[in-house]
Design a protein that fits this description.
With 75 residues, the chain is mainly α. Helices cover 80% and strands 0% of the residues. It comes from Leclercia adecarboxylata.
């Protein structure tokens, strides 16, 4: 890990894998039973603010991570 070129290449590969994982679409499973689908919708609605807060933290960490990677690549 003493070679900066090796480290930068590793960072680029990790960034590419991370971007691919973030961009790919996530498929939602549909429930055949309408009662289960309705209960799932109620639960998602009840937890929406917790999920939003978690998503904001994820985005903040991702932006910090990208900023650090850019600094490493340009150093």
């Amino acid at each position: 890990m003493d070679n900066p070129l090796y480290l930068k290449g590793l960072v680029v590969i990790l960034l590419a894998f991370w971007a691919w994982d973030a961009i790919k679409t996530k498929r939602k499973k549909r429930s055949a039973d309408p009662a289960i689908a309705h209960a799932d919708a109620r639960e998602r609605n009840a937890w929406r603010y917790v999920r939003w807060g978690f998503r904001v933290i994820q985005i903040a960490c991702a932006l910090y991570f990208v900023q650090m990677l850019i600094q490493i690549l340009l150093a």
